[in-house]
Amino acid sequence: MTITKKLIIGFGIAVLTAALIGSIGFLSISGQVKAMNVVMDGDIPFISEVNELKIEALMHRRFEKDFLLNIGKPDKQKGYLAKFKKSSARVKEIFTLIEQAAPNYESRESELIASVKTARVGYQKYYDGLKGVAGKVLGDPSITPQEGNKLVKPFKNNIYEFENNVNTLLKVSDEIMKAKAIRSAKTGKSTVALIVTVLILGIAVTSVFGYFITTGIKNGLALLTTHMGEV
Q1: Is residue 71 a contact partner of residue 137, using CB atoms and an 8 Å limit?
Q2: Using alpha carbons only, how large is the chain's radius of gyration in Å?
Q3: CA distance 28 to 77
């Protein structure tokens, strides 16, 4: 093989190695960007909605308490009842959003759907119960806060059931994000390992060709020197 061919092959390998490393890096970065877009457009809103559900559950407790403490002040009670209904509408909306997002998490879809279904049933019973109590209290000013609390008591387990399932949703969403983070880290490590492997192989092969090219040039110069000496 001539020195020219060896040089061409050597440079070709160097260029191929650089191109291969660049391609691997580009594909890896593209994959990471795509994964981040999924997180930004889907996962973060999903987790935000689940967390909002938790906040709404706490707000329901507050509206219930404030409504009963303001017995004898119907205007204030109606104000809290209006807030309660507005919050309830948002809770039902979030339920629907979570159900729509569940198919994006195939491995946990059934768990998410089951938790939402149970939470929805418990919530609706609590909502209907508190709404009924509110109607009685507004219609009978003689009912005391203590008596009102007793009227609400039968529906306490329903709100607890709702909150427990919200906690399950939070747990599942947290586990989903952790699993994605672990997969992303593994992908990054695999990409680095692949790039390093290709780089080492490229350097090794290029070094071998470099050695043969250098040896060929030295031998050629030695022959030329010998020939010149003989002349």
Answers
A1: yes
A2: 35
A3: 58
